[in-house]
Design a protein that fits this description.
The protein is 36% helix and 21% strand. It has 9 helices and 10 strands. The strands form 2 sheets. A 6-stranded parallel beta sheet has the order 7-6-5-9-8-10, with helices on both faces. A 4-stranded mixed beta sheet has the order 1-4-2-3, with helices on both faces.
Length: 245
């Protein structure tokens, strides 16, 4: 089974990150800058490059923003939670972002991008009733999914219990929390749980959290979307741990 990565930067990062690309598709006349580098990297890895019409790319595109470049890749390889925790070992600072049944694949990719930028160790998603890694996620991640471990598990509550056993403090983001981000314990080994776009945190997942946290709002709009909120919270963790330069 194959999926598609769309856009020049996303395809370039997929090649750089060792994503299992099986073919690169280019619109006629695509050349210069990133496209030339894509050609060179594909050739170096023995990956075939085909020229196809823009109409074909348009038909296969999920978001209509392929920029004349697509890559066919093998199905995404999820990482077992045990493997992620083994890599982390006893490190004192670690961020794992858990997504409680996000349904929009673009949001999933956007959260992955922020997670990778701040140096998170993994993203966790559920197997059922949730977006998975596909073309839209690759696109909005801007290449981050080539470098970030993604765990896919059937039961998020059990995942949170396992993370607690591994020394993680579990914080859930919700508008109803009494504690604002600046006062919450967002440092050290943190599992940050983000709710779905419409319903937020599910009851059992919220109950499994050690604490809940919200972003303060000064304007008339009630809240940020899940990807924006995850970015703010992740960077607050990074600021406190000195995890970014």
């Amino acid at each position: 089974m194959t999926t598609l990565v769309e856009g020049r930067n996303a395809v370039l990062e997929a090649l750089r990150g060792g994503v299992p690309v099986t073919a690169v598709l280019l619109a006629p006349g695509s050349e210069g800058g990133p496209v030339d580098e894509i050609r060179r990297m594909a050739q170096a890895r023995g990956i075939g490059t085909r020229t196809v019409s823009r109409r074909v790319l348009d038909e296969r595109s999920v978001r209509g923003a392929h920029q004349g470049v697509m890559a066919e890749v093998e199905a995404f390889a999820y990482t077992p939670l045990a493997e992620v925790l083994g890599r982390i070992g006893e490190r004192k600072a670690s961020l794992i972002i858990v997504l409680d049944h996000l349904t929009d694949e673009g949001n999933l990719g956007a959260v992955a991008r922020s997670a990778e930028v701040v140096g998170a160790d993994a993203l966790v998603i559920p197997k059922a009733r949730s977006a998975a890694i596909g073309p839209a996620a690759y696109k909005t991640s801007a290449g981050a999914l080539a470098h970030l471990a993604v765990v896919r598990e059937p039961n998020l509550v059990r995942v949170l219990e396992r993370l607690k056993e591994a020394g993680y403090w579990v914080g859930g983001a919700t508008e109803s929390a009494s504690t604002v981000v600046w006062d919450a314990p967002l440092e050290g080994r943190l599992a940050l749980v983000m709710g779905s776009e419409g319903a937020g945190l599910s009851r059992l997942v919220e109950k499994a959290c050690d604490f809940t946290v919200r972003l303060p709002v000064a304007g008339r709009v009630g809240s940020l979307n899940v990807a924006q909120a995850a970015t703010v919270l992740a960077f607050e963790w990074a600021r406190r741990t000195g995890h970014t330069s």
